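Researcher: Structure prediction, please.
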Amino acid sequence: MSAILILYSTVDGHTLTICKRIARVIETSGHTVTLARIEEAGEINLSAHDKIVIGASIRYGRHRRSVFEFIDANLSRLERQPNAFFTVNIVARKPEKNRPETNPYLRRFLHKTRWKPQLLDVFAGRLDYPRCRPLDRLAIRFIMWMTKGPTDPSTVVEFTDWARVDAFARQVADL
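Model: Predicted structure follows.
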């Protein structure tokens, strides 16, 4: 069985929730999983893991800089072993934008990095207006209004397709 490292970058915590679900599914296959924030990856012996998975959320149209810094610093390692990447964003709530080949944020990510992950996916995230800071809530409501999404400031909606997350986890286990 494999030792799998799942690194995550999250703003509001939902990407971590998805990573924990992926870890549970993978562990049921007999693999071991280490879960860590991508900012803490420098403290981890990457060579002790057979596979590396990176999950990263989008905020205001961008992945966090730490994701690109990790990839740049560890590109040769990523290229030598089985690997996967997924992104989490609210745009993926739309059927026409919920696949790796149709999601604009994943396409932009792939254009900005030299890394070519072996396995890719995109998952819709969670919208939780009450937990947002006032300025973030206002900006996100405007974006949702423009994209015909929910704008009620009391709205909490989880758009994540958990069956799809589970399928991705099984694919990672089989890499």
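Model: The first helix runs from residue 14 to 27.
Researcher: Thanks, that helps.
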